[in-house]
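Q: Predict the bound structure with iron/sulfur cluster.
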Amino acid sequence: MMAQAKPSETFVDVRDLKRVFDVSRPWLNRVIERQPKAFLKAVDGLSFEIRRGETFALVGESGSGKSTVARMAVGLLPVSGGTVTIDGVSMTDVKDSQTRQQLRKRIQMIFQDPYASLNPRWRVERIIAEPIHAFGLLKGAQVTERVGDLLTLVGLHPDDGRKFPHEFSGGQRQRIAIARALASSAEFIVCDEPTSALDVSVQAQILNLMRDLQKEFGLTYLFISHNLAVVRHMADRIGVMYLGRLVEISEGKRLFSAPRHPYTRMLLDAVPDLGMTGRQRQMVAGEIPNPINPPSGCTFHPRCPLANERCKREAPAMIDGVACHAVQEGRVV
Amino acid sequence: MTEPVISVRDLRVEFVTRKGILKAIDGVSFDIMPGEVLGVVGESGAGKSVTGSAIIGLIEPPGRIAGGEIRLHGQRIDNLDPEAMRRIRGRKIAMIFQDPLTSLNPLYRVGEQLVETILTHTDLSPPAARARAIDLLNEVGIPAPERRIDGYPHEFSGGMRQRVVIALALCAEPDFIVADEPTTALDVSVQAQIIALIRKLCRERGTAVMLVTHDMGVIAETADRVAVMYAGRVAEIGPVRDVVKHPLHPYAKGLMGAIPTLEAEAERLVQIPGSMPRLSNIPQGCAFNPRCDRVFERCRVERPDPDTPRFGLEGEAPLMPGHRVACHLYTRNPVENAS
Ligand SMILES: Nc1ncnc2c1ncn2[C@@H]1O[C@H](COP(=O)(O)OP(=O)(O)OP(=O)(O)O)[C@@H](O)[C@H]1O
Ligand SMILES: Nc1ncnc2c1ncn2[C@@H]1O[C@H](COP(=O)(O)OP(=O)(O)O)[C@@H](O)[C@H]1O
Ligand code: SF4
Ligand code: SF4
Ligand SMILES: [Mg+2]
Ligand SMILES: [Mg+2]
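A: Predicted complex:
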């Protein structure tokens, strides 16, 4: 199918990625209420790399900017700043638009709600064949055969192609979405909360399938979830997001055995303990602040037990996988 | 012996549809004692919410309670007229749903909604009711409650709104609360705070809670006992530690193995083949039999009821009192099971 994954090779390179949304009230309201324009920095200077064949996960609470990164990574949303480079081709530079067209079929996305992302009036075979036609990959009977193969690959029956999306359960619909993503032989798949709407038993089926396919085709995943246990199960490396910034990047399991950033620790402490070890945990303080008006300096400082004056003034830089003054000053062990 | 706050016996709920009569709940029984949290888990469609709605008297046509009994402090409540049930629902039984906005009116200030509920269910004067509302907001962890009480629901974050709903549920000091997925829409950090709050209420007020969720972690942290539902029936029920750590029912075992945890080292998650049957198509005998890797002849003809296991399976932890399972393996001769 494709060359065996070389694990050290950078496949996706995200540099200083930014996205600002204009969230101002309508012009007339602003004039009447004498309010200035308002901007929301959904993603505020994010950098990470994904190696070929690996799963890089983004975790963080609701509103931290995970989906915004995902949409920029696949080119669904224009960036406000920074670059996304996939296999050497810039997704953000206009000069590369020719080569980018070539790249498109190698990138696909899977969403949380498989129903919303599948056209309800199309039969499943047409949905899955769509990328094949769009990129002119195959013709005639070959398409039918390929669609049948893809359905089998994701654990459905070739005859299921005749049905409509509403005839399937949530888990089966996610299988259809995966089959469609694979139809153009995509190499990089961005998965935004692919199992968050599914029951745990169905989630297990989908996560196992995603892993099998990754092994078989050497797929590279950007995997987004707010569920830390799911992320731990899936990811080779993990980035923790807070208010549009990365606060920690770590090898998968190490994030859980040795979390460094105070926010990572807080998140881990909040996960209910299925092992019932009776571990005492520190109660989480507060909630994610309003992103339109984020706190100064390190945006985590109002919730951080280690915050000091410097934290209120100065945003910490990402050094050695963690963005925290306390860690860098050696105040945390 | 203390008597249960809520006692459900052989509950049956049906929906009359064009396709015929669907049995959504088919013989469910359990008790909940004062101060106890009964966790109810299971896949979507298992019947968790319908069970909760039946207890609070909110099954609407085409649904109907088709059999069984529901008792509150020993008194039947499943056959009360709607007006009598409405009085009980405000005062003795309260509910908390997944989406706090279903319980809050967006047009009224939070304080107005709290005060009105307090005035309806107690003999407090309006100023005393307002003071009580502020106390309640404080108790559920709303900072600066004397100021926030005059805010509208949209001015609160999701987690704060769910706290307000809990405060609202507490107004009449109910004996029993049905909480249906109360933390599902919330971030883990906020979820942990809400869980701690529910636990505190049970401990301090002796409120009994039926906590419906599909999150096993939430159950493990919050519940005293847990019922695992499958296709409208209880597959297994028992003390939370026993069920979570040593599930007996093949479905419950599969469910536990399917959950990724912060400790497990498994490359692959346990996968239960297939999916839950539709209500119109529930298999004969044990409803789980087409998906079960331990199925034998009897499973296809005879429906198992939750019962104290008579025999343990080989290699399993010793059987605990109060742990019941609806599976023929546990009433079958151990020699046969080994084969
Ligand atoms: N089109 C938009 N217009 C204005 N604000 C937006 C838009 N899209 C996202 N935002 C804001 O950007 C921030 C990040 O949103 P995003 O959807 O990326 O978060 P997320 O991490 O995916 O959250 P969740 O876990 O809830 O999916 C949020 O504050 C959100 O309200
Ligand atoms: N109004 C209704 N009409 C027909 N069927 C219903 C209705 N409400 C619920 N059901 C069915 O009853 C079963 C149990 O539903 P529910 O209790 O909501 O499940 P859950 O365990 O996910 O809370 C499901 O099969 C559902 O489709
Ligand atoms: S920089 Fe300061 S406030 Fe931010 S996480 Fe580190 S210690 Fe806490
Ligand atoms: S009764 Fe039979 S089919 Fe049902 S769970 Fe037990 S062994 Fe499996
Ligand atoms: Mg999102
Ligand atoms: Mg439900």
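A: The beta strands of chain A are 10-22, 39-51, 55-59, 81-86, 89-90, 107-110, 188-192, 220-224, 237-242, 245-251.
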